[in-house]
Amino acid sequence: MKNNTGLDLRQIIKNYRTSRLMSQKDLAESWEIPQRAISRFEQSTRSNPSIESLLCISSGLHISVDELIQRTFINEGEENNHEKN
User: Fold this and answer.
1) How far from each other are the two terminal CA atoms of the chain, in whole angstroms?
2) Each residue's pLDDT tens digit in the chain (85 positions)?
């Protein structure tokens, strides 16, 4: 789940949260979702987040789902090619 900056979705969310000096609880409250969802987003190694997760994350980050997908998956193919070599 790498993006064009080398970050994966977990890192995007964690960086967003920590750059604003927010705890997972703070972020969950601001996004109006359970705290366990933030924890799951930051710890998940799933390569295909659910549509609901993408909608929640993109809304919370104030970006479109398209932009979130581009940030997250643009280099996924490149990463897979590097692993094969």
Assistant:
1) 18
2) 444 444 578 888 888 889 989 999 999 998 888 899 889 888 876 656 778 888 888 888 888 988 887 777 654 555 555 555 5
